[in-house]
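Entry 12.
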Amino acid sequence: MKQAILDQLLADRAAKRAVVLVTDLSSGDGLLVYPAEDGSNGLDETLAAALDEAVRADRSTTVETPGGGVFLHVFNPPKRLIVVGAVHIAQPLARMAVLAGYDVTVVDPRGAFASEDRFPGMTVLSDWPDDALNTLAPDARTAVVTLTHDPKLDDPALEVALNSDAFYVGSLGSKKTHAARLERLRQAGFGEDALDRINGPVGLAIGAKSPAEIAVSILAQITERLRTDAT
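Predicted 3D structure (tokens):
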């Protein structure tokens, strides 16, 4: 690998940019391609589609093109999950997300909930949610889930999330609770396109009842969004 490419890869990693090293297997020549910039990146249709799929799947792969074999080495930023509300559902959700490869941060200013004992080995912040999210700066590899049922905590977090590139935004609550939430956010200036980004009630409709089952439905919905919509 040429030093210039290595230096750029390190810079991209530090900046949390998705990038793919496209290497011609016959010549060994390499090219860095940034999949978020546009749909083609100057590549032929077959290679562009394969690159998009590799990024979605987090999987490097070899592709046969009319010009010969090409290896796509995917360098994605880490997946992150920000959970607002250190409630009962947050505990199994955080553990499952770690197993699925997410860096998990739990945010809750209520000290009785946000403790390392309840979330061992995870980052737990006692900041107010909007302050925490502004610092964490959700990107296109970040999912944000609010679980508190408290508008004073959930709404400010959602406002930051909706103004970010987060690939998934979800909020716990009944249909009635979610309708009221949407109206508050409308009053705060958010349009329908932004509000449509919120998955509420959060999670896939699988009939979940217990905290662990609800956590499964949430992580499943996050995974669906990541693998079918995110690039």
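Annotation: Residues 211-228 form the longest helix (18 residues). The mean pLDDT is 91.
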